[in-house]
Design brief:
The chain crosses the membrane at residues 7-28. Keywords: Membrane, Transmembrane, Transmembrane helix. This is Thioredoxin-like fold domain-containing protein. The protein is of the alpha+beta class. The chain has one domain: Glutaredoxin (3-Layer(aba) Sandwich), CATH 3.40.30. Helices cover 49% and strands 10% of the residues. The protein has helices at 3-30, 43-52, 74-89, 112-124, 127-135, 152-173, 204-211, 228-246; strands spanning 37-38, 56-57, 64-69, 93-98, 183-187, 193-197. A hairpin with a 5-residue loop joins strand 5 (183-187) and strand 6. The radius of gyration is 23 Å and the shape is elongated.
Amino acid sequence: MTRKHILYAIMFLIGAAVLGSVGYWLYWDNFVRWQPVTITQKQKDIQELLDASGYAASGKEGPEIWVITYRNCATCKVWEDQELPKFEAIAADIRMVPFAPMDVEGKVTTTASERSTIAEIWLNRSYPLYKQWRAANEETWQPGFRAADGDLARSAVVQASRDFIAKLEPLLGDNGVPIRYPLIIWRDGTQHIRVCACSDERMYHYVRDDLHAPSKLEGAQAPALKIEAQATAAAETVASDSASATGNYGPDSR
């Protein structure tokens, strides 16, 4: 074999390696990186933690789907606006778990009304209240239930939502789950726990496919603008109804 042939062979091998690397990167970038993670470690710990949270459930008979979210999460709102109606359409047992993000170096990252609403949801598990809160503007949201600030019991509930996240994130991280919100957790057809850090729309279809939810809703229309005053008034009614229906376990139960 001449030096010329050897040079051609080296160039061919280098070219093949480059093309292979580019091909793998394209495959990873377009498919692998968006796939949900199947939990293989500490499944019992994760399930027990979810069950112990103050989730607000839709109460339907379909498959369970857990949505871990917080108020000022823009990607969470996009997912809820686009995907939540599709899972409601298949009567999924949707379990919303809102939490209060931790303060950062003394800077408060949540509002007083946000903390109060999280405490109320965790105590009374009202799915309608969660949806009313999500639909309302934070600046005009004025809940009629007891404030969390200055109330030891309700402040402890807000802290419990933070403790929940502090325990959940390491468990998911040990399984290779990137921590981005919303976190969507469900079980597939073989009952394995699956997690989607659904911060990108390219991830959405994996959850729908596993739970057999539609990609589009027939006759779906853009949601009408909500009048904030109506949403605020409804919040008081929903909170009152949920307290009487499920029992208020907070200090205002007396």
